[in-house]
Amino acid sequence: MASVAHEEDLHGHGHHNHDHHEEGFVSKYIFSHDHKMIGKQFLITAVFMGIIAMLLSILFRIQLAWPGESSDTLSFFLGEQWAPGGVLKEDMYLGLVTIHGTIMVFFLLTGGLSGTFSNILIPLQLGARDMASGFLNMLSYWFFAISSVTMLLSLFVESGPAMAGWTIYPPLSALPQAVSGSGLGMTLWLISMTIFIAGSLIGSLNYIVTVINLRTKGMTMTRMPLTIWTFFVTAILGVLSFPVLLSAALLLTMDRLAGTSFYLSDIIVGGEMLTNHGGSPLLYQHLFWFLGHPEVYIVLLPALGLSSEVISTNSRKPIFGYRAMIGSILAIGFLSFIVWGHHMFITGMNPFLGSVFVFTTLLIAIPSAVKVFNYLATLWRGSLIFTPAMLFAISLVSTFITGGVTGIILADSALDIAIHDTYFVVAHFHIVMGMSAVFGMFAGVYHWFPKMYGRMMNTRLGYVHFWITLVGAYGVFFPMHFVGLAGAPRRYYDFSVYKDFNIDSFEMIMDLNVIVTIFAILAALGQALFLFNFFYSIYRGPKAVQNPWNSNTLEWTTPVEHMHGNWPGELPTVHRWPYDYSKPGAETDFIPQNVPLAEGEEEH
Amino acid sequence: MESKLIILLVVIIAAVAIAQLVRVYELSSKLRGKNEHEINQKDNNFNALLLLIFMFLQFFGFIYLMLVYGWTGRGEAASIQGKETDWLLSLNFIIVSTMFFFTNALLFYFSYKYVRKPGVKAFYYPHNNKLEMFWTVVPACILAVIIILGLKSWNEITSVSGSDAKVVELYSKQFDWTARYAGKNNRLGKFDYKLTSDNNELGLVTKNTIDTAIFHMLKGVTGIESIQTKLNDPSIILSDSVRISLEKKLSSKERLIRLMYQMKENHDTKVDGDAWDDFIQKDTLYLCVNQLYEFKFRSRDVLHSAYFPHFRAQMNTVPGLTTRFKFTPDITTNEMKIKMKNENFNYILMCNKICGASHYKMNMKVIVLSKADYIKWEAKKMKETFKDKYFPAAAPAKSPNPVPVDSTAVDSSAVLPEKKDSNKKV
């Protein structure tokens, strides 16, 4: 019912305003209620944050590869306070690592992926005029924007940004006496994340309501593209898990400001004996990872959804096992809530509890394997077209495998003892999040760019960007596994300490670190091509046609020029699933969802 | 500054150059009547080929790194439990590497093989229940093996060690480690963080240490009485902020001393002996080969992690919570030096949980001695117990009825911290 009312309202609205269609600058570009514009706002903000976080990573990679050597780059960006004489300070190293992780996980991969593509694609692929609530949608972007600014602001605080790692484990994050970043920097971190969570919640609720209520006629749940399924499950994960992070942050704030003892007990720091007693740092870890693990899938699922769509379209084949894919998405979503303890095997948590988490965690490998094999079966006997989006989507599958199999090792508690908190872990989650999820995002941008801006990105530049990124990122994260297997702990400022007890390990770690840093710089420079291509094509790219990839989903039935309400006239009616590619008996190798079944044609 | 200007100039020129190239490319595409979204056959085939080449590069890179750096970059496991971990890790590595090669090979091979060819239509193949069942069940079976073996090993490694284990406490603080051996009776003395002071760094609980701590809290330089004097002295004018901070300090100290009096009331002097015979060891942790060790971990300030990379052992240290771990070193340091072909090799205990600016420097050398050497070392250390070092005048450790000592008459050596001793390297 709600959808009908909404439709009529918009229809009437459009009718009356035909002659003064032009909106003001502010309502069109800044406080826009239009989901397409909000999606683009999310994308550009996230890309900006991503560039900053990437730059931070280059800064600390320089320190890791050439410890103690003066660097112009470091002194240029950090100045005398944080890099006296061009050598990074120890505590700022931790600050850079912390903010790099926070921005990448939350601002680039959560805001950038789910925020951008849920906004752009949910109404367009479902056949809706807009999100359920345009106003709340706008609000969710502006919360995101404010939290981004707050997070960046914390980099300029005198005592430094948060320095307790992106997981901000207390007591380190609760005690300014323990590390300088736990002062104002940490406060800003907490404020920023609180705002971020509020925005994410509003956004997610909106996505859920839209998917449930605003599907166009004929768009049953099992006719939705997999992209929508992943955004839907992602939004549910966000709604259920982000509030737990908020409570964790709230208790931490109380410990910091109000003298409570949720996470603190029996502590002497900076020569001062604290009276806090009875709290437990493990409580924080439980709360944090109750979000933290679903968060991995909040990041990954949208990427998998985008790649499903891109791979199916560019293989000219239906995605193999559509229902199994939905089942896997739901299974992954459910399981992601009962595996958080695998981050805590050696924290002092009861080992029996640990073994339960081993079991549930390894179960997740089953739906993940199903997804991979389904992708492989989709490619089999296809007619593959390698657009830049397709290349990124295929590499996503490759890195999903590579990152997934190392996950099996880490999820095994007995093995985790030896490699916990080493570079093996860093390599593992960067392959999954830094490569798979980012590749999914790139695939999405290249594929839907014509829909977002009505113009095409340059394909050749896209190819160059893809190959530099793939080779560069593999060059960074593949050798990193071996640094970890040599036992090198993460978050170490300088591995020269190894000289004192094992010169061979030291040499090996340093050799690999130099290789990793060089590849990292290469991959970072490669992103300049993307940025150039992106912004150049927004203004100067060749005009796009309505359905450039010959795709089935509804967004390609909208006019190239954006309009409020998405479709002129009536909303399209859906008659089939979105994957009728190369269907025998059809004239073209694609049949859009709004084409009625032909005489005697069976649905898949 | 000049170099920066030049760099900036180069960047700008590069951007302009790319823009011009793109422009030329677009114009030529327009002339040829080509649309940007149409991928021509040449580009398509070329990318398919590159993907295949990339696959070989990736496989070659993996094998190369494996051969050169191997997974035992830190050498053979030097403990009985670690050897078990290594065996399991190797097995898992073989399983997952097989998966890695198999699925990646299919992925890139399909990408290469099924690249668009003129006149060849894709095969409409939406699903196949048998196939899907197959690749659900097979991974499930492999995972079952991994889970069963993993949990078996996990249960063994984390099970409580018996009475034959030597008990050692590892105490962590920013940014060093201190070890406490359980002494003759192999029982660690009790501890309470409130008793921590310069001559009782680990906060061990005995009647004397309680008395000393109370005395300090009351009459020490920054003790309760001195703060009270300062606050009540009309001749001292305090700014508001100083006064508030002093009052805060006072109230927290009063709270602590109340708890200390309580502790004193409830203290059973019978357990004092457990603490008196413990001995404390800094800088280097000495272990005996083939001896099972039960480690207890504590932290004074923030989270740390006791990480022994060569023994494949690791456990976080948590303020307010005692954690534990066990292992049996089975290769002495000297043997390992020969195995590693490195005269200067040493085992190490590192901190592996971010704990502050100097986190990376927080480590402790570990030396595994042969049994004979260890007995010699231990005999020497048994003469430098906690009591001998810091409270030589206190009641004897083994006395069944300790002589009551008046709190106001504590031996002066006990009250005044002996800094020179406690910081000396052993």
Attribute tags:
heterodimer, A: mainly alpha, Cytochrome C Oxidase, Chain A, two-stranded antiparallel sheet, 2 strands, B: 426 residues, alpha+beta, Immunoglobulin-like, 5-stranded mixed beta sheet, 13 helices, 10 strands, disordered C terminus
Secondary-structure map with pairings?
The complex is a heterodimer of chains A (604) and B (426).
Chain A: H1 2-16, H2 25-30, H3 35-65, H4 72-82, H5 90-126, H6 134-153, H7 184-213, H8 226-257, E1 268-269, E2 272-273, H9 281-315, H10 322-335, H11 351-363, H12 365-379, H13 388-411, H14 413-419, H15 423-453, H16 459-485, H17 503-540
Antiparallel strand pairs in A: 1-2
Chain B: H1 2-31, H2 41-69, H3 80-113, H4 129-158, E1 166-173, E2 176-181, H5 207-219, H6 224-232, H7 240-266, H8 272-276, E3 279-282, E4 284-288, E5 293-299, E6 304-308, E7 313-317, E8 323-327, H9 333-339, E9 347-351, E10 363-369, H10 371-382, H11 386-390, H12 412-415, H13 419-422
Parallel strand pairs in B: 1-5, 4-10
Antiparallel strand pairs in B: 1-2, 2-3, 5-8, 6-7, 6-9, 9-10
Describe this structure as you would to a colleague.
- The complex is a heterodimer of chains A (604) and B (426).
- Chain A is an all-alpha fold and 604 residues long.
- Chain A is built from 17 helices and two strands.
- Chain A has a single domain (37-557), classed as Cytochrome c oxidase-like, subunit I domain (Cytochrome C Oxidase, Chain A, Up-down Bundle), CATH 1.20.210.10.
- In chain A, α5 packs antiparallel against α6 (134-153), α5 runs antiparallel to α8 and α12 (365-379) runs antiparallel to α13 (388-411).
- The longest helix of chain A has 38 residues, at 503-540.
- The relative contact order of chain A is 0.10.
- Chain B has helices at 2-31, 41-69, 80-113, 129-158, 207-219, 224-232, 240-266, 272-276, 333-339, 371-382, 386-390, 412-415, 419-422, and strands at 166-173, 176-181, 279-282, 284-288, 293-299, 304-308, 313-317, 323-327, 347-351, 363-369.
- In chain B, the strands form two sheets. A five-stranded mixed sheet of chain B has the order 3-2-1-5-8.
- Chains A and B meet through α5, β1, α9, α10 and α11 of A and α1, α2, α3, α4 and α7 of B.
